[in-house]
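subagent[fold] <- orchestrator: predict structure for attached chain, return tokens only, no commentary.
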Amino acid sequence: MTRQRQRKCLGCGTLFRPDPRNVRHQRYCCQAACRQASKAASQRRWLSQAENQDYFRGAENVVRVQRWRGEHPGYWRHPGSPAAGALQDDCRAQAIEIKEESAFLVGEALQEALSAQPAVLIGLIAHLTVCDPSKTPL
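subagent[fold] -> orchestrator:
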């Protein structure tokens, strides 16, 4: 097992162990301020690329946003209500068994019924073990 090296956080400067899944590119620790700094640095890097300079500008993007806002009126004004309900239905309590119904199931076990018929049991064992009775020594 390889030992994971610690790395210095670019946000706060403390040493931290990167997540094993992101070890090759994680440069910030998990502190809230460092995560914000990581997000800001990532956005700066993305916006510094030439093809992304005007991604949010221009007439076509204005029309796109206006069309979306027209299709979704009041999107920003109506926060989701906290009492909207859970995504799952509540589990209902199971009914308690009635004693008379469960008495039917209490009878003899299957194993006890089989041992009462030894010929059937011996035949079943012989069939499962593929035993040839003509070759058995007496």
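orchestrator: received. Logging for downstream: DSSP finds five helices and two strands in the chain. The longest strand covers residues 7-8.
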